[in-house]
Amino acid sequence: DVKVTQSSRYLVKRTGEKVFLECVQDMDHENMFWYRQDPGLGLRLIYFSYDVKMKEKGDIPEGYSVSREKKERFSLILESASTNQTSMYLCASSYLTGTNEKLFFGSGTQLSVL
Amino acid sequence: ELKVEQNPLFLSMQEGKNYTIYCNYSTTSDRLYWYRQDPGKSLESLFVLLSNGAVKQEGRLMASLDTKARLSTLHITAAVHDLSATYFCAVANAGNMLTFGGGTRLMVKP
Q1: B4 touches chain A (CB under 8 A)
Q2: Which of A23, A67, B31, B81 has its CA 20 to 30 A from that of B66?
């Protein structure tokens, strides 16, 4: 089974702190994604990466950056955390089989910024 | 810009009843997904719909796609408590990125 592992289930940080959210997948997927999930808004794409050292902005990249130094690892960075970044963060990875791309999700990190 | 709307956002139903969740989207797409999320858990893929008129069924859930109407439905037949979860639809845009609907929280009461 594909496994997408997020390093922390819960995090509490203070405003202005630098925050790292780590994600590792074990299926050699090219594509990796970071979403945030907020009630009533569904999932919104922050950044994605389609190869090592490659990254693309999603719908809401402001206040975030990412790093993909190795294929299996995709990190989300909050340079200076703010209270409006309190959210559930979901990492996902995918492979492409023709047009049938399928996302596999990690179990999420609930981040609270105080 | 692709927009995806689900309704209802919240659904409480009795066991044994039937109901439908709707997913509307604003621009042409060739792929639509349905996901399930249990409380405190991550999203689990249910269905991928790739063409107009596509219908997929698993157990008490059936998903269909009408690309002309830009509408997908997730139909629940004879609901059971185990189906209680939040259901998301997601639509792929031309750049291969997914846009998610807001989710439908389903509660099936015994």
Answers
A1: yes
A2: B81
Whether B19 contacts B102, CB under 8 Å: no
Domain of residue A17 covers: 4-97
CB contact under 8 A, A101 and B92: yes
DSSP per-residue letters across B3-64 = -EEEE-SEEEEETT--EEEEEEESS--S-EEEEEE-TTS-EEEEEEE-STT-EEEETTEEEE
Q: Provide the CATH number for the domain around residue A20.
A: 2.60.40.10
Interchain contact B94–A (C-beta under 8 A): no
State pLDDT tens for residues A8-62. 899 999 999 999 999 999 988 888 999 999 987 888 999 999 889 889 898 899 9
Q: What are the structural domain ranges in chain B?
A: 4-109
Is position A111 within any domain? no
Reported confidence tier of residue B1, pLDDT bands at 50, 70, 90: confident
State the smallest CA–CA distance between residue A30 and chain B in angstroms: 13
The answer to the question of residue A42 being in a domain is: yes
pLDDT in tens, A63-83: 999 999 999 999 999 999 999
Total number of domains constituting chain A: 1
CATH of domain B4-109: 2.60.40.10
List Cβ neighbours of A39 (8 Å cut-off, separation of 6 or more): none
